[in-house]
Write a structure and sequence with these properties.
The complex is a heterodimer of chains A (about 110) and B (about 120).
Chain A (H helix, E strand, L loop, with lengths): L3 E4 L2 E4 L5 E7 L5 E7 L5 E9 L2 E4 L6 E3 L9 E3 L8 E8 L9 E2 L3 E5 L1
Parallel strand pairs in A: 2-11
Antiparallel strand pairs in A: 1-3, 3-8, 4-5, 4-9, 5-6, 7-8, 9-10, 9-11
Chain B lengths: L3 E2 L4 E5 L4 E7 L6 E7 L6 E7 L4 E4 L2 E6 L4 E6 L8 E8 L1 H4 L5 E2 L3 E6 L1
Parallel strand pairs in B: 2-11
Antiparallel strand pairs in B: 1-3, 3-8, 4-5, 4-9, 6-7, 7-8, 9-10, 9-11
The chains are: A mainly beta (about 110), B mainly beta (about 120).
Chain lengths: ~110, ~120
């Protein structure tokens, strides 16, 4: 089945550690995104990538990094510079050309900093 | 600056009645609007959308209305069913400015259907 797979589903991290969240899609979509969800704040865009080897900062990119070496993969690294990393992270993808803005989401990864 | 606002954090509706979820936006460049439904610990799923050239779009029990002059849209669910209990996010994009890649989301409304 086509879809987006995020792993791990739950992750615990000690303060000062970097952690990488995986996102893989087999929908043949060009564009991929990372959002963060916090209670009462909806979904906020961290980074997005419209094509392989290219990505742009979203609204809250500080303390995060990404790479897009393959079309199918868009991993997100939460670095120690991120001051409040505990959140629910969502990866999404969309058709870049001719699409209508519909995003397909993964099931999310919940990161807790201890 | 919250460009897409859902002012009601929660809503409770009796099963079988109509659920109306509201969304306001401030950016006049937004021209495509979407509703997503989200269950706990899952990713959002697309529900219904509307382009700014329309004022209504219907899909089964779900209808979205757009009032461009008021910068307001609403999602109507009728009849409401227990499985509709979820958080609903309104989202908007500006195709003319940003392409179809970036969506701005509202803060969500938690809908609870009472059996």
């Amino acid at each position: 089945d086509g879809g987006i797979t995020q792993s791990p589903k739950y992750l615990f991290r000690k303060e000062g550690q970097n952690v990488t969240l995986s996102c893989e899609q087999n929908l043949n979509h060009d564009a991929m995104y990372w959002y963060r969800q916090d209670p009462g704040q909806g979904l906020r865009l961290i980074y997005y990538s419209q094509i392989v080897n290219d990505f742009q900062k979203g609204d809250i990119a500080e303390g995060y990094s990404v790479s897009r070496e393959k079309k199918e993969s868009f991993p997100l690294t939460v670095t120690s510079a991120q001051k409040n990393p505990t959140a629910f992270y969502l990866c999404a993808s969309s058709i870049r050309q001719g699409g209508t803005g519909e995003l397909f989401f993964g099931e999310g990864s919940r990161l807790t900093v201890l | 600056d919250q460009q897409v606002k859902q002012n009601s954090p929660s809503l409770s509706v009796q099963e079988g009645r109509i659920s109306i979820l509201n969304c306001d936006y401030t950016n006049s460049m937004f021209d495509y609007f979407l509703w997503y439904k989200k269950y706990p610990a899952e990713g959002p799923t697309f529900l219904i959308s509307i382009s700014s050239i329309k004022d209504k779009n219907e899909d089964g029990r779900f209808t979205v209305f757009l009032n461009k002059s008021a910068k307001h849209l609403s999602l109507h669910i009728v009849p409401s069913q227990p499985g509709d209990s979820a958080v609903y996010f309104c989202a908007a994009s500006g195709l003319s400015n940003f392409g179809n890649e970036k969506l701005t989301f509202g803060t969500g409304t938690r809908l609870t259907i009472i059996p």
